[in-house]
# Entry
Amino acid sequence: MIMAQSAFKRLLVGVTGGIAAYKAAELVRLLVRQGVKVQVVMTPAACQFITPITFQALSGQPVFTDLWDDRIDNGMAHIEFSRDSDAILVAPASADFLAKLAQGRADDLLSTLCLARSCPLMVAPAMNVQMWHNPATQRNVELLKKDGVLVFGPESGEQACGDEGMGRMLDVGALLEALEASQQPKLLSGKKFLITAGPTFEAIDAVRGITNLSSGKMGYAVARAAMEMGAEVTLVSGPTCQPPPQGANLIKVVSAQEMLAAVMANLVGKDVFVAVAAVADYYVLNPSEHKIKKDAHILTLELAPNPDILANVVNLPDPPFCVGFAAESENLIEYAEYKRRRKNLPLLAANLIQDAFGADESELVLLDDKGAHPLPRAPKIILARQLLRHVAKMLPKKKDQE
# Structure
C-alpha cells in the first residue's frame, strides 16, 4: 500500500461493538503513520471485542469510553472532541449505532458527540447480512445519507458468523481510499466518463497471444479519480490484475476489436472519453483454434492493423471531450504533440515508456493548445487527479456557470 499524506490532520475514530473492531486497530495505526492525530472513542460494547489500551498504544492518545469521564476539565467531552476534530469516522458502525444516529439518540459518549458535532461525519457499517438487508437498517442508512453523513461500504464476503453476503466492513485500504476521496473537490459532478484501461490481447492460438506490458494502473487511477470528483464512470478494461474500482461500471474485454465494440456501444450520453488503454497496433490474421505444436520450422505470423479506437471516437459527428495518452521511448514532447495534432485532440497526456508500465509512480506532461504542462513524479492516483483537474478547466461551462 502506498502511504500518502492524509487530507485530515485530526480525526476522531469511533469504534462500536462488532468483530470488525479489529480492523479499526489497523486503521488507526496507518492513519498515525500518515501523520494524523487520532482520537479514539469507544462504546461500551466495543470494549467487549477489543481493549482501549490497544487503541491507546496505537494512537498515542488516551482513549475515552464514558460520557462522564472526569479527564476532561469542563466535563463536556462530547463538545470538546468534536470541536478538536476535522472529521469523525465511526468504524465499525453497528446496526444499533446507525439507528441511534438516524434517530438523533445520544445515550453514550460516541453518539452524543456525533449529535453535537460541527464537523463531517462518516460511517463504515459492519453487521450480519440479514441485519444489513433488514428494511429498518436500509431506511436508517438512507436517512443518514440525506442528512449528509458519508457511508463507506459495506462490502460483500464471508462473515464471522459463517454467512456470505453484504455487511462486511470495508478493508482498511479501501477505507483509507474512501477518506481520501471524501476530500476531493467535486469538479466533475454530473459528468459521465468513458475510460479505457490496460492492455489488449491478440490471440495467436488457443494459448498464445500478442500483448504488452501495460498494468492498467494509470487507467484505473483515472477511473477512481473521476469518481472521487463526482463523475459517473464506465471503465472498459483489457486483461489486468487491478482490483475493480468500487462504483464504476466495469466492462471486461480482451482484444482491440472487443474494446472498440464496447467503447462504441457505451458512448451515448458521455461527456468525456479518456483513452488510457495500451491497445495493440496489430492482430493476427487467422489465429489457430487449437494450440500450435512446436517444431523446428520458423513460424510466420501474418498481422493486420487494429482499428484506432481514439480516432474512431474523435471523428464522430458530435464526439465527447477526448483525452489521449501517449507512451514514448524518446523525444517525448515532439512525438506526443505530433500525435495530438494528428488526431485533433484537445488534450493528451504523455510519458516515457520506462515510467509508464507497471510502476506505481510516474511523470506526465499534459499537452494542449496552450502548450506543455509538466506534472512531476508522483503516485499515479495523484497524477490522475491533477489530469482531471486540468480536464475540468477545459470542459465547456454550462450557461448557469458562465
About this structure: The first helix runs from residue 21 to 33.
